[in-house]
Amino acid sequence: MNETIFYFFYNLAHQSTFLDKVIIFTAVYLPYLVVVFAGVFIVMHHEIHKAEEPFKVLMQKKKEIIVVFFSGVVAWILAYILKLLFALPRPFDALSGVKSLFPESGFTFPSGHATFYMALAVSIYLLHKKAGLPAQAGYVFIILALLIGIARIIGGVHFPFDILGGFALGTLVSIFAKKYIN
Fold it and tell me: With b meaning 16 or more CB within 10 Å and e meaning fewer, what string describes 37-60?
């Protein structure tokens, strides 16, 4: 089933130069923008930039900043350790005829990208779920994490199970971080 779903998405690659560029952007470059967006969201949401004493407001919100970025970093480290333990090959190494759209190395399960970005997204969601409009920002970050994960499948560097495993790990780390840090 993992391979069947993989091919469903992977068959979208190598069909159009434009679509391939969109997939490469989504899988490789969008993740950097998401980190910037998360930082900007946290600062703008609390209007730290408008405060008379921005550093004081920033320090009051440091737990939120720590939960969001600590979740992502810890989740990514755990994903890296699990990759070494499972040592599963990437689709382009495991399946004949699969050519990745962009270079990638190392093992595949769980996806470090899926883990990090879902941890970031779920942390933002959990910290703002009762806050009206900011709660919707959590959904936006979750959608961005999903798009990054799907793009990495289409790009031929991850199986769906790698992405789902990353999403699960990122979500769990975020829940624990919110519970024990916040």
Answer: bbeebbbebbebeeeeeeeebbee
Closest to 135 in 3D by CA, of 54, 51, 32, 41: 41
Query: What residues have CB less than 8 Å from 46, skipping those under 6 apart?
Result: 57, 61, 64
What the chain holds in terms of domains, given with CATH numbers, is 2-181 (1.20.144)
Dump pLDDT digits (tens) for 38-48: 988 877 766 66
pTM: 0.89
The C-alpha angle 114, 103, 74, rounded to 5 degrees, equals 30
CA-to-CA dists, residue 82 to 86, 107, 165, angstroms = 6, 9, 10
Mean pLDDT over residues 123-132, rounded? 77
| Per-residue pLDDT reduced to its tens digit, 106-115 | 999 999 999 9
